[in-house]
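Hi everyone, sorry if this is the wrong subforum. Our group has a chain we'd like a structural model of before ordering constructs, and none of us has done structure prediction before. Sequence below.
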Amino acid sequence: MTLYIDPPTWPGHGRLWSHLVSDESYEELHHFASSIGCPRRAFERDHYDVPSHRYPAAVAAGALEVSPREVVRLLVTAGLRRPKGRPWG
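Answer:
Right subforum, don't worry. Here is the predicted structure as tokens:
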């Protein structure tokens, strides 16, 4: 089980956010996100939006720190990328 997270550099709603992804499955991603206190509503198509205050917990629980570009590459390579505006088929 490997999960990946980029640095909390994405602004929104008055805070900074990270993206948490799996290179294996959405089930793995949902389980991990739940274990660090991220609600299911934070799931956005193919990743979790993680607020900066949860970033240390994600890393402590085993998420590997990667660049935003690497997050996208990992999703594409795993076949888990779901871009906006495209059907989920």
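For your construct planning: The chain has a mean pLDDT of 92. The first helix runs from residue 26 to 35.
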